[in-house]
Amino acid sequence: MAHVNDIEIAAADELLDDETLRQRACTELLRQRAQALGLLGADDPTPREGAISEAAGQAIEALLARELAGPELDEAACRRHYDAHARQFAEGERLKVRHILFAVTPGVDVSRLRERAEGQLIQVRASDRTAFDEAARTLSNCPSGAEGGQLGWLTAADCAPEFARELFGRTEIGVLPQLLHSRFGLHIVAIDAREPGRLPAFEQIREAVALRMRQLHEISALRQYLQALAFEARLRGVDLQQPQSPLVQ
Q1: Distance CA 235, CA 7 (A)
Q2: CA–CA distances in Å: residue 90 to residues 45, 82, 198, 204
């Protein structure tokens, strides 16, 4: 793999949160790789404040289409995936949810916010429901905090997509063991009840199953590709070994 140039992200961007820094680093890795393969001109301007050129965006799309092509999916493979992950394809699933939101706002120290949220997560997992409700009332940046963090019964359509992906199609009940990340911030989440919904027949959702399998392949392949690029590069001011960049979620 061709060597990627030095990438220094944080020096001029001290106020950016860790996730944004990692996203910019991943984008720059891909932009430079596209240049190395001749998909993008060497004179393409260095991104300013994370904004890449239109040509760079098109080159990165071409790069990923070329480098991350997945296997052909036959019906037998799709059916095996459907059988193994049936809950993920249920329609009408509902959850009864409580949460504590630690909002990410401009200028906030995200590392300290995460430490605070993780410390609180340990405390509420080791306590009864009263402790969760009290923490929601005193700490949550969501109006639901006044009601102990109660969000009521939710469907996937009621949630931000990145939030729904972590909640639906699973089996956990109680306080989840990890923080959930969303566009709003960091969440401690408790699931009080699940209604599983109805599972359509495989024949009705064959294309949706195939699409999901392709998405999972692309996510996994992109993570591995970025790791390989990062290994070859000289990164300063950003750590790609931290939680996944939004680019690959």
Answers
A1: 5
A2: 46, 11, 5, 12
pLDDT tens, residue order, the chain (249 aa): 444 555 554 434 444 566 777 788 888 889 999 999 999 999 999 888 778 899 999 999 999 988 888 777 888 999 999 888 887 787 888 999 999 999 988 888 888 999 999 999 999 999 888 999 999 999 999 999 999 999 999 998 899 988 998 999 888 999 999 999 998 999 999 999 998 888 889 998 888 889 889 888 888 899 889 888 888 776 655 555 554 444 444
Per DSSP, the chain holds a count of helices (H) and strands (E) of 7, 7
Closest among 22, 15, 28 to 245, alpha carbons compared: 22
**Run of H or E residues at 154:** strand 150-154
Concatenated DSSP letters of the chain: -PPPPEEE-STT-TTS-HHHHHHHHHHHHHHHHHHHTTSS-TTPPPPBTTBPPHHHHHHHHHHHHHH-PPPP--HHHHHHHHHHTGGGG-BS-EEEEEEEEEE--TT--HHHHHHHHHHHHHHHHTS-HHHHHHHHHHH-SSGGGGGTTEEEEE-GGGS-HHHHHHHTT----EE-SSPEEETTEEEEEEEEEEE--B---GGGSHHHHHHHHHHHHHHHHHHHHHHHHHHHSEEES--TTSSPPGGG-
**Structure tokens belonging to residue 129:** 């429901």
